[in-house]
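Let us work through a complete example step by step.
Step 1: write down the sequence.
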Amino acid sequence: MNSNNILVKLNNVGFRQNGKWLVEGVSLNVEKGKIVTLIGPNGSGKSTTAKIALGIYKNIEGSVEKYTSKVGYVPQKISIDWTLPLRVHDFMTLTENIKDNEINEALTLTGVLNLKNKNLGNLSGGEFQRVLLARAISKKPELLVLDEPVQGVDFSGEIEMYELIKKIRDELQCGVLLISHDLHIVMAATDHVICLNGHVCCSGTPMKVAVSKEYKDLFGARASSGLALYEHHHDHEHLSNGSINPENNPLTFVNQINNSNQNPKGGKHDG
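Step 2: predict the structure and record it as tokens.
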């Protein structure tokens, strides 16, 4: 591994709150041009781990090494008064001084430039997630942290969002720390998967994790045998709103893990 490409490194980190460990014993690296995905059930410590990586939680066990200050973040929850007449353009500049050309470039990359002057309250779930993503990438971050970025998005929209994240990774050559409990699509949109349940249950390539005993113990054998990995070939067209042209859409779903009994020792428990 080329250490020069590492953007953030977590070394055996943990965090306690009210006498309870929210997460412990987690180690991971996020490198330039790589997507690392944290998966796990609700309450497994995914968001806590992301906040440790971001430096939001200070009083932690272990250590965090951060090699960039250029970070973009899409939080899991955001508080907005939807009754306010707030346009997309205004929202983009609420917390940071973002130039108009940066706004246009980010909205174009996420496929929603046409929504620039639209009221936030009139956006669909998918449109709002694309605006959040545009705001996070407006300053061209080296590290992008996305906490459940497909909330409020329908199934086909989820596929497009994960494709968009890969496109942003390619365009900006940034590292991505992605958080999801959605196991059916996210696995194919990532380079490395870490399965959490308060600690690291298993980690590795999507295929390695999906066939591991720890993954099956946590999510059930059916989740493993029925996991849909999708392959995407970049020979399609995107419409002006960022969606994929249905007339030229080679998205294929591949059920690659049928009854696999390969190496059930795929990972090890940390604690």
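Step 3: interpret the result. DSSP finds eight helices and eleven strands in the chain.
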